[in-house]
Amino acid sequence: MKLQLMTDSGADLTKALQEKWDVNIISLFVLFGSEQFKSESLTTHDFLARITNTKTFPSSSAPSPQDYYDAFVATPADTPIVLVSVSSGVSASYNHALMGKTMLLEKEPNRIIHIIDSKAASSGMMLLLELAHELKEKDTPLEKIVETLNNRVPYLRTIFVLETLDNLIRGGRLDKVKGTVAKTLNVKLILHASHEGKIEVLEKVRGTKKATRRFVETIGEYIQDTKDKTFGLTHGNDPSRCEQFLSLIKERYQFKKIITAETGPVISAHAGQGAIVMSFFSDKAR
Q1: Tens digit of pLDDT for each residue in 268-284?
Q2: Which residues contact 53 (CB under 8 A, 6 or more apart)?
Q3: Domain with 79 in it: what CATH number?
């Protein structure tokens, strides 16, 4: 069917997945002081190296409404658009996309644009985009695709474990004193996207081995049978750590499909080197 899928760079799609699923990417931005870069223009390796070698900690910003308008208007007028946005709980991207849509509809009221708030990021957005692509390939009616995606969002679990708390502390998302105490006590944070799509602490675990074990165990607490499920996993510039987690997950669960990728600069700015982000559809809603 005729349909254009879109997302933003919070989805961390590889070039191969972008092409396979025919997804247009609208780039978020990272800023080092007065310098601004499209997140798509930086590799995660170079971005993290720059953080290490500078006193200026980066911030991120959403695409502007005009950026979304430009992406929408560049799509043929007779082609419906479905855009999967990074969570409105952590970014202005979703609201800016709605504004861009309104701008276009004022000029071209017959356009069809649907914007999905993923309430997630990274691997969670990947799973929604894969689902959208599968439905598109089956010639599913547009209304059914949109309904299915919106209905699946509450069941989408995105959970991540950090190798370091430094980025959260430097970015102001974790109190410096609390962060220093956690580091001193070797506390690892297992975080998740809440029902509102905000980042919250799921568990505090002392020690890397225990944190790894609890991270993997968590899957079984949300899914009884994984055989028909797709699993997403992204990593912060650390493929060997990704493989370690994948090995443990494959030993314990039998997912139908596993999709992996590297976190991009926007997600890496907060999660840091070595972060592992997993997503799956759970049996019960968040």
Answers
A1: 887 888 899 999 999 99
A2: none
A3: 3.40.50.10170
